[in-house]
Design a protein that fits this description.
The protein is an all-beta fold. It has strands at residues 4-7, 10-13, 18-24, 33-39, 46-51, 57-59, 67-72, 77-82, 91-98, 112-113, 117-122. A hairpin with a 4-residue loop joins β7 (67-72) and β8.
Length: 123
Amino acid sequence: QVQLVESGGGLVQAGGSLRLSCAASGRTFRSYCMGWFRQGPGKERELVAAITSSGRTYYTDSVKGRFTISRDNAENTVYLQMNSLKPEDTDVYYCAAATSWGIPIAPHEYDYWGKGTQVTVSS
């Protein structure tokens, strides 16, 4: 069993930055693919970024060049650095862990989820 706890969300003006953190329990953290999803009211949950155990990364097109995902296996933590934030980035952001190979894209491919953290970008 893995528990994921997100932190770092908040309110920021457009153009600003936030850094999300996700602390994971368990000794097998380093073997998981970790992902950051986001979801707004009436919207489907969307994969924003993911990082494999070997450090390979994925970004959805709308955040490329602005967001950076990273992980610290010694600290069992994954980060999402978000720069040049836009109002359309406003959502609840969720951390998730997948035990499958590669970079899963769909939410159902992830095995463990955090409770989410709110990110609000004002114009």
